[in-house]
Amino acid sequence: MSLIVMKFGGSSVGDPERMKRVAKRISERKQEGHQCVVVVSAMGDTTDDLIDLTKQICTTTPPAREMDMLLSTGEQVSVALLSMAIHSLGCSAVSFTGWQAGMYTEDVHGKARITDIQPERILKALDNDKIVIVAGFQGMTGEGEITTLGRGGSDTTAVALAAAIKADVCEIFTDVDGVYSTDPRIVRVARKLNEISYDEMLELANLGAAVLHPRAVEYAKNYNVPLVVRSSFNHNEGTKVKEEAVMEQGLAVRGIAYDKNVARISILGVEEKVGQLAKVFTALAKEQIDVDIIVQSGVMNGAADFSFTVSLSDKDKALQVIEGIRSTVGFREVTSQENLVKVSIVGAGMVSTPGVAAKMFEVISELGLSINMVSTSEIKTSCVIDGSRLIEVIQALHTAYGLDTDSQVFVGGPSERR
Amino acid sequence: MSLIVMKFGGSSVGDPERMKRVAKRISERKQEGHQCVVVVSAMGDTTDDLIDLTKQICTTTPPAREMDMLLSTGEQVSVALLSMAIHSLGCSAVSFTGWQAGMYTEDVHGKARITDIQPERILKALDNDKIVIVAGFQGMTGEGEITTLGRGGSDTTAVALAAAIKADVCEIFTDVDGVYSTDPRIVRVARKLNEISYDEMLELANLGAAVLHPRAVEYAKNYNVPLVVRSSFNHNEGTKVKEEAVMEQGLAVRGIAYDKNVARISILGVEEKVGQLAKVFTALAKEQIDVDIIVQSGVMNGAADFSFTVSLSDKDKALQVIEGIRSTVGFREVTSQENLVKVSIVGAGMVSTPGVAAKMFEVISELGLSINMVSTSEIKTSCVIDGSRLIEVIQALHTAYGLDTDSQVFVGGPSERR
């Protein structure tokens, strides 16, 4: 008998038929003799529908606190219905909201972090032989305010819960068969990975692979929670995410990720004084703008150029911030560039295999593209390049690193949101 | 400055436009200098839509606990949206679920009674100059289980809250202008009452007038909460419900109610022994069947006949129960009758005005109808009659008791559900 946490995203429970299929799957697991805790997101379009309602009602930006009150109902509907569906199959289930499940978060709305889990009610229900259904994506502050965890929140709920109740495994059910060597919508011969390490998964998730949220992976790594990413539409084995993952056939690269949500900002002719860079990035951080790759070019005549990337949606705000500190920093010019893409190769084997990055640069050059920026870590190399030929680049890299398979991938419905 | 509780039903907030209108009304009240606590029901069809979903998912009756988890989301959506709408108008508001508002109930699902209110969060928010929006119809048990209060629950939430925070008045906003002398859909010259006493309102509500739920009226009477029933679509004065109400022009009858949800069951030839009746009604009570009027006819040859009314939906179950105790009670025959209606006249003046009931019997006889059963209290008389000529009967009684007015009544949208 194992203690299993199963997480189903919004598209897996998107309509009554899918809800019933998920209920069947859970009750089969229970009948195999396992204890099951299930985390579920809001049904399909629920969240969008609720947001639409606010747009019809509000002329100003709604308070984040009230937005959390509103959006958290989506998961509450899901858990109640899923519990009913399981009852209909003759199993006993009980649903909990975030606050009922003892999910405590910091006092921030829209993207709260979990601070503590008090799973007594869950454990008691498991002792009473019940399947426990927990609303993902939500929690409560110490003062009884309802919070939501933001994007990828249900993944995080599942992993954090698995850690808190010491589950044997946390299964993340989604609309694809597992984690792929790259986006199967772009590369039809993408390879489903049998295993991947937390670190590799973390890089892939951070670099744009939507299948798991980085925060959830981080949580899994920190608490050593074994994860399995698998399809809610079939019984294929999925991908195991764990501390040490076996590399197949000596491949150095596990996967290729890309991120189109990239803009480059260059500040040219910055006066060479101590602390100039710090001023820029402190000002950006104050406005909650995340900076990714930073590159400084050589100093000439007492002035330096440097470039960095931000997400596309932050670009205009970042330019404003920089203009605002022009007089205190002192620089000649600011430029920005869109239509870029960040392509990354990830693999724990890169450290011990010389020439992996070199091959990446070579493949990109052979396509006649120049590389704008480069960033590396022990297990990844990222290049920022012109975005217009993304598909060609990904396909060429996929082939060059020996990742192509013979079989074509079935790509399911819309990807999960929460 | 007054402390006001305002309650808006589901049709008053049925769509974004109505929601905005309600928000405007509330913020006007606030700007007049009052402290406002608002209780609101689920938007329009939300509850029905949720129930539809359960029908698509469940093949068995869903557990009542999960039904409460599900349905309570309807009010949570309403309070969040209404709070946002008020924010859009530049006022500060905060929404609370039942559990956040400190609404404690007994541990029963679908029709829990309020056991305690701990309004600290509400009072603190009022101190901070906020408009407080509370989800009607819901509460929490001491163990943190979400409960719903059943039909009329939002009325009860509003009145109970008004009592707990010692509000100066509890305004119940609905789709009609107030409490009428009878159903204005039947009698176009029905009279809007300026005042009515708790006791009269309680009788009318119990006897089928849907404008206020009996439980809410009872609560108001017990805690002496001044109520006003008024329209959410205009600023007309509405009806005051209070301890002592002035009777207009010496009328003895305040209002006429009817209830079509009536079935008669007769048990014939019951052996005359002590405790026979108790056996029957104990057995019915055990199955949660409410019995209304009970009539026993004379004893002949050591056997008695008696009749009672139950609600239509309980009829078949009641017949089963009686068959089940046939051997222990001993009787000759059971019969039942549908297509009946209970018509009632209500008025505190009946006690001091002779002949009021006699006039009722006379009016009904003059229409050529026989009276099947009669029941009386100090302030009401009810007759069970054939249901086919209900409208005629009500109109004739309304005229006979001098209740007709010259002005015709505008009848609004669908009546409130919660």
TrEMBL record, chains A, B:
Keywords: Amino-acid biosynthesis, ATP-binding, Diaminopimelate biosynthesis, Kinase, Lysine biosynthesis, Nucleotide-binding, Repeat, Transferase. It catalyses: L-aspartate + ATP = 4-phospho-L-aspartate + ADP. InterPro entries: AceGlu_kinase-like_sf, ACT-like_dom_sf, ACT_Aspartokinase, ACT_dom, AKii-LysC-BS, Asp/Glu/Uridylate_kinase, Asp_kin_monofn, Asp_kinase. GO terms for biological process: diaminopimelate biosynthetic process; homoserine biosynthetic process; lysine biosynthetic process via diaminopimelate; threonine biosynthetic process. It is an enzyme of class 2 (transferase). Residues 265-339, 345-412 form the ACT domain. Pathway: Amino-acid biosynthesis; L-lysine biosynthesis via DAP pathway; (S)-tetrahydrodipicolinate from L-aspartate: step 1/4; Amino-acid biosynthesis; L-threonine biosynthesis; L-threonine from L-aspartate: step 1/5; Amino-acid biosynthesis; L-methionine biosynthesis via de novo pathway; L-homoserine from L-aspartate: step 1/3. It comes from the Bacteria. One of its GO terms (molecular function) is aspartate kinase activity. Its EC number is 2.7.2.4. ATP binds at residues 7-10, 174-175, 180, 185. GO terms for cellular component: cytosol. This is Aspartokinase.
